Structure formats: C-alpha cells, structure tokens
Amino acid sequence: MKFIFWHHEVQGPLTLESLWDGSHGFAGSVGRLRLAFWLADRGHDVLLAGCVREGSLRGVRAVSGMEWLRAEPGEGPGGNRAILVMSNPPGEADWQQVHSHRQRFAVLLWPANPIRPVWLRRTQEGCPAKIVCISEHHREFYRIYPAFRNVEMSYLGTDLDLVAGAPREAKEENSVLFCSIPRRTKGLHNLLRAWRRVRELAPEARLRITGSARLHDPRAEVGRTGILDQELEAEFPDFFADPPGSLDRAGIHLLGALPSLSMVYGAMKASAVAVVNCNWRGAAELFCRSAVEAQAAGTPVVGASRGSLPEVVSHGVTGLLVRKADPSLLAEAIVRLLRDRPLRKRMEEACPAWALRFADYGAAARDWEEIALRALKGERTPARPAWAGDALRGIGYGRVRAWARDRIYGTRLERRLLKWMAGK
To answer: Which helix (H) or strand (E) is 70 found in, with range?
Structure first.
C-alpha cells in the first residue's frame, strides 16, 4: 500500500533525520510520525508531506509544501488508492484542497485531540473515510455519534528504540520528574500545590520539570523563569519570586526543553517517580504518551485517574492514580512511592512489559494496515457493543449534542468553559 502522512501543522520544517533520532524538539503529536518508518520497513510506499524538508531516509520520502497533492500519484501498488493520513484536522482552506482530490485518495483523520462535530459529519458522509483515535478512551467519545461505525483505534506508540538507547544512570532515590507539558492544562498547578505537602513529609524530595510552555504554544507568555506560563508562576510566589534561589529552596529544578528525546528518556530512567497529567477537572489525556514512555523506561507513574490514564497505567502495578481531586492525596501517592522502595521496585520491574502493548510501533503498523484495508473496501469498524452509548446513538442524542456544540463554537461561552476546564 501507499501511505501519505500530511504534516500540515506549524511545528517544523521537520527533517526525516530529526524525526528518526528524536532530535526534532517537538511534542508527541509530531513524534508519533515515526510510525512512517515502521510502515516503510513492512514494504509500503511511504511519503511524509507538508511542513517538512525534502529528503529520503529508511524507505520514507519527504516532500515540502502542497504541490505533492497535485503531483503525487494517487495510486499505490496493485492499483489501490493511496492512503492520505491527516495528522490532526487541517484548516478549512487546506481541507478544501484535499477534499477536491478525494477521488484519488482514501483520506484518514488521525487526531491527537478532541475534534469538532463537523469532522464527524464529514466522516459520516464518506470523507474522511475513517477517524483513527489513539486510545479506547478516545474512541468511546464518539460512540454516541452516527459516524462511530467509521471510528477506528490504534495506540499512538512511542520510541522504544530510543528509550532503550538512552543513557541509564542509577536511580535517584528522592527524585520526582514531571514529564507532561508543564502547563495548567496538564495539572502542573495541582502538582505544585501538592509539592508543599511532599516537602513536609519528605524534605529530601527533589522535583525536576521537563519541557516548557512554549513547547506547547510558541506564543505563550512566560514568567521570570522563561519556561513556565506567567500566570502559573504568579500563583506560587514562594517557588517563583526570585528564581533560581526560590526554586532551589523548594527543591525544584526546571530542566526546560531538552534538546533530544534521548535526554528526556535518560531523565525518566534516573527518576524514582514520574508524574504525568494531574488535572482532574478538564484537559483529560486521550493517550498520555509521557506515561507510556516513563513506564517503558521502568519508572512508576503518578497522575490523576482521568481520561486515558486508567487505560495506559495499571493502578497499583505500574503506578498510582489518584481518583479524588485533592492535591494532598497526590502528595501522599508521590511520597508513598518515594518511601516504599519494595513497592517501587516491583513497579519498576512490571512497567516495561505493561507499556509494550501501547508503545510498540510494529503493532501499530499492523493496525494501520488493517484500518487502511477497511477504508479502501468501505468496511465498517469492528466494535464491541456498549448498550448505553449505542442506545444514545440510536435515539439521536449524538446529533443533538453535535448541533449544540456547533452553536457555541468560537463563542465567549466556549472560551469560558475551556478556561474552567483548564483549571483557571
């Protein structure tokens, strides 16, 4: 088959070399494109197009811009249409260009975030042919909608080869690593509230925070640290009033955006505990790549029991998930793992095998082959029944919900709801 992965977003221009070795400096929504190399290794014709630099590596070709849409043959081996994978929904103008070529390609949408109802309606109408979700939790969002019959799922995968090759240092017994994007949407404010209690219970504990607000949004207004959002720093003057001194006194070290994934994975391996999204109220994870990465690196995870985290973290086996929205309980979970070395050791041993089912690009490539075949044949997605969601779809609840969501899209009400969900 022929796969075209369209990277139309602003992160880039991306090179094949930086994608392969993990030095591109972008988040998981870009890193997941490494799947292309595994598909090429399985004998498929694979093209990466859009915001990329032209080149060829390990069986994958890269072409920049949009000219490929007209110039690239729309047929793959055997005369089948090429599979065009949109990495997240494009802007309307770009979408219209793609839509005008819908007879040449089987178009698939691969979202890393919740999508607008308009994409569900378009899928129901036949283009995109499929929506490919990144976890079961993500897919279940759409069970109530008529388009659910064409909503697929394949786990996002992560860089097991880069994790294995990252430097392995001795575990730092008192080291806690926050490895989600360091913003309020990922619950960093809840961790900082918990950190005061952690230091009361375990004064020797040290917190390291990877990444930066601008890794998520290049236009983010950062504070004194030059790393975190200004409004977040303002909430915690005891930590951020006069960095680095105030940070040192609190046992906090901001690592910033590390130049390579190898360094991130090395930091995970060296930490006793990895903390991921701990936002209970909103912005729940649809996959949580950082949780899977940490477990693949052999580090137990602590986070909120929300979104996909109960799916990708085995509570009590590979980490501790906190159900109640209470930073003091988050602190207790962290301290428990820091203090209970036998428990932590058992989790460290269980983590890599557990993470494999979510992380293996080889398994993801096989999933994508099956999804592509169903798209080409116009077949429905296999799905186990779920009586409540199926009943709601049957009575038209999804249509009403989509109508309501469209009416508030872009309005002040939507902005207020999103602000509330972000925990502000």
So the answer is: helix 68-71
